[in-house]
Structures are given as C-alpha cells and as structure tokens.
Amino acid sequence: MFLSSSLSSLCSSSMDQPPDRSKRPWTFSTFVYSSSILFLLLSILILSFTTTDLYKSQTLRFTFTTNRIYTYLQSLFSNSNSKSETPNTSHCVLWMAPFLSSGGYSSEAWSYILSLHHNLKPSKFRITIEHHGDLQSIEFWNGLATETKELAIEMHRTECRPNETIVVCHSEPGAWYPPLFETLPCPPYGYYGDFMAVIGRTMFETDRVNHEHVERCNKMDRVWVPTEFHVASFVKSGVDSSKVVKIVQPVDVEVFDPLKYEPLDLVEIGDLVLGGSGVRGLGLGFVFLSVFKWEKRKGWDVLLKAYLREFSGEDNVALFLLTNAYHSDGNFGNKIVDFVKEMNFKEGADGYPFVYVIDKHIAQVDLPLLYKAADAFVLPTRGEGWGRPIVEAMAMSLPVIATNWSGPTEYLTEENGYPLVVEEMSEVKEGPFEGHQWAEPSVDKLRVLMRRVVSEPDDAKVKGRRGREDMVKQFAPEVVAKVVADQIERIFEEKIRR
Ligand SMILES: *[C@@H]1O[C@H](CO)[C@@H](O)[C@H](O)[C@H]1NC(C)=O
Ligand SMILES: *[C@@H]1O[C@H](CO)[C@@H](O)[C@H](O)[C@H]1NC(C)=O
Ligand SMILES: *[C@@H]1O[C@H](CO)[C@@H](O)[C@H](O)[C@H]1NC(C)=O
Which residues cross the membrane (predicted)? Predict the structure, then answer.
C-alpha cells in the first residue's frame, strides 16, 4: 500500500542528516510541495530535499515518537474514502497554522479549513495544510472528530506547485519567516517570489501591535484580521492600510447547535473549590460557565470578585471555570482559595456560592455538551483577538456577558447579549505585551449583569436565541467561506493579470 511504503521510506530516511542550510535551493521555480500525514506523530522536524529529473520535491520528514499512534493513523487512513469530486484547477492555497495545538489560532484555522472544504466549489482552488506556529499536542489531535482527522490527512497530502499557490500564514507574526522561535517557517522559504502571494492572518489582544510585528506584517501581500477593532489598531500601529483586510471568523453553527445535545454532567467532571458548606441538596441551580486559559488577560480575578460579592450560598448559583495552564502550574483550586484569602472575601452565614474548576482536557467534540450544561456564559476579559468561546456559547443560545472591548465588539450587542462596560484602560505590566494598554472591565457592572441574567431568565433566553440567530446569519461557515474564497480569488486574478 502506498501509505506503508511511504511510511517506511520516511522512517528510514529520517535517519538522514538534515540539509546544510546554506545550500538550501531558494530559487527553484518548479517543485512540488509535497506533504505526508506523518507530521501528526512527530516531535523532531527535519527539512530535506530530493531531486528527480522532472521536478525537485521538498518533503517534510519527521521522527516517530510512538508506534501506537502510528498504527492508529494507518488504520484510519486505510479506511478513508477517496474524494469523488476532484478539483480541476491547479490553483492552490497552502494554509499554515497551529493545526495540531490547542488554542485560539488552531481552532480558528480549523474553522476556516472546514468551512472552505465544505463550501468551496472544486473549480476555485485546492487547499493543502501544514502545521506551523506552535507545539503539537497528541491529546488535541485525539480529541478531534474522526471526519476532521481524515480530512486533515487528505488535505495535508494535497500537492501544490509554489508558483500556483497562495500561502496563508495563520499565526502570531513572531512565527513568520524568519521565525523567532523554533517552528516550520511561513512562508517556508522566505519572501523570495516562489509563491504567488503570501497572506498573514493574525490578531492581537491589546490596543496596539509592536514594531517588530508591524514590520513582519508589512512584508505580507495582505494582512487579514478578524475585526474592525484590529483594522484600526493595526493601521494605527503602522501596518500599511492597503494591506489590511477584515475577515471575520466562522463558528460552526451546525456543531454548536443546542438542539443536538444533552448536557454534560458538570459536577462529575468539575472539582469543587468553594461553596457547599450549607446544606442544600437541591442540585446546582443556575449555572454560569467561563472558559479561558489561566492568565491575567482573561479577567478571572474580575469574575471571582464580582461573583463572590454578588452571590452567597443562599443564591442557587454555581460558577464553573473550564481552564488550563498558561505559563503557570495547574493548581487552580489553590490559586482561587489564595485569591479569596488575599481579597479578604469573608464567608457569610450562608456560605460561599459554588465555584468549580474543570481542568481536564475537554475534547473538541464534547464542547457543545459543556455549553449545553450551562445557563449563561461569562468572560470579563481584558482583551480578545476574537473570543472563540464567546461565539460558541452564543451559537449554543446561551446568554453571554463579555467585555465590550476588542474582539467581542465585532459581534456582541445589547440585543444578543450583555456587553460589559469598560471602566478604564490599564497598562499591561508583564509578559510580551508589557507597556500596551488593555481594558479593565467594571466589577460592579459585572455584578449587575450576572444578577440580571439570574433574576430575569426570560429576557436572558430572548438574548440567547438572538445570539444564535446572529451567529448563523453573520458567521456560519458558508457565509465566511464565501468571503475568504472571494478574497483569495481576487488575489489569484490580480497575480495572473500581471
Ligand atoms: C508553474 O511551473 C510549472 C512547472 O515549471 C509550469 O508548468 C506551470 O505552467 C507554472 N504555472 C504558472 C501559473 O506559471
Ligand atoms: C472545472 O470544472 C467546472 C465545473 O465543475 C467548470 O465550470 C470549469 O470550466 C472547469 N475548469 C477547468 C479549468 O477545466
Ligand atoms: C460598547 O462599545 C461601543 C464602542 O466600541 C459603544 O458604541 C457601545 O455603546 C458600548 N456598549 C455598551 C453596552 O457599553
């Protein structure tokens, strides 16, 4: 079988020495960008080149980490159906993104790829994908739907000629050529004219883009950003305004459809951190859900302050925090207890309201069930590129409370949710955004909104339904796929005319 032979040839050739970088054939005008599924398994990446009489082909080679996954993929692959609708165009888009990592860019990239795949006419262009921009996570890959995995493998194997290919570098600009950390560069061989055009897809969570990133953006033919907020902040920071194009992000309203799921048992997967000292036994009552990486930007401190000041054990409410580590250890329960002590939140006679932490990995396919188990979604973030969990919650018809700044301003309104007022802008004190500004959402206004969602449930349901309607209308995959395909077609036409 082709797969096993290619696997074994790759296995044996991965013993080869990596090529001497100084001898990289930058100027090939013709070669086939060829792909293999093996990128899924691997930790070490070696670029190497082979030459035939007809063309020079570049193959990405890797070293195996586990045989078990290899066997799994092999069986998956032999079952996959071959596509009946073969595209009849040589035009191609190479989409490079952190496909095999969890995180914002990854889920965004998947949503584009899936939207384009399901909605693109085969005569427009073909798509091939490559992992780039972040570390690979086997756990994340395993959590993807089987259909998605099969499609990924199929797309990864699509071969494209660079001179007929537009590259999309979908990641933070630090990963673009030459990358500031170890990753496959994008575009793969720099900006030397092999590819028809290169598009940078990126976003930012503060009020500006740093100088280094501005320069990287300006090397691109286009810079795609998700919101008006970014168009303004990128241009203000010095990115060439003729290159900046707003391309919103799709949300899979078919997958995130509240009618299709039973709720997940949250108590089963969550760890109780606060509350439960009073005797109740009445079930959870009203459930707030928040989903975020544990970092200051996400405003977990604002959320806990508002929640613990507004509610007590007497209120029939629970707050579930689905979180994971971001440059920190994972002991979130302790962090919350420490924060409560530090802030001097006294436990009243009625006890604390319930706070649960979910720090297990929730597979992509289980996310809708998680939202389904909540009554409202809340994220008092200090800044978002887009705010993926927010739109997913909206697609699931949940009433959402989120900060009225940055990404969410593109879709969150008084009609479809609860935009949270920003009290002031504050300076980012640490990390790579140091010195930038972001939003400080109002704790008092958050208390008011959380209370309102609980006490006016009918109103909240109306907004939740409107939220889903707006997601379907504005960000359904077929809607956004058309926008993306039109932009790409336009660039092909421009380049051909020249
Ligand atoms: C790209 O290169 C190949 C091989 O040299 C050639 O056959 C093809 O016509 C080229 N395509 C374009 C659009 O120039
Ligand atoms: C590709 O197929 C479509 C119909 O699916 C047709 O309209 C188009 O002309 C074809 N293009 C080429 C280059 O053959
Ligand atoms: C949200 O912010 C926009 C400006 O970005 C403003 O026009 C709107 O009134 C704000 N809404 C609320 C509820 O604060």
Answer: 31-51
Q: If DSSP codes are grouped into helix, strand and coil, which group holds residue 447? A: helix
pLDDT tens digits, residue range 403-435? 999 999 999 999 999 999 999 999 999 888 899
Rg of the chain over Cα atoms, rounded to whole angstroms, equals 24
Cβ 409 under 6 angstroms from ligand 3: yes
DSSP category for residue 410: G
- Average pLDDT for 372-396: 97
Q: How do residues 133-167 score in pLDDT, each as one tens digit?
A: 999 888 888 888 898 899 999 999 998 999 999 99
Is ligand 2 within 6 A of the CB of residue 86? no
Identify the domain containing residue 273 by its residue range: 258-475
* One domain for residues 178 and 204: yes
**Index of the ligand 2 atom closest to the CA of residue 122:** 5
Ligand 3 pocket: which of 233, 409, 444 to mutate (most atoms within 8 A of CB): 409
pLDDT of residue 326 exceeding 60, the answer is: yes
Following DSSP, what letter does each residue of 75-133 receive, concatenated?
HHHHHPPPPSS------EEEEEE-TTS-SHHHHHHHHHHHHHHHH--TTT-EEEEEE-S
Say how far apart CA 72 and CA 436 lie, in whole Å: 46
Specify the CATH number for the domain of residue 384.
3.40.50.2000
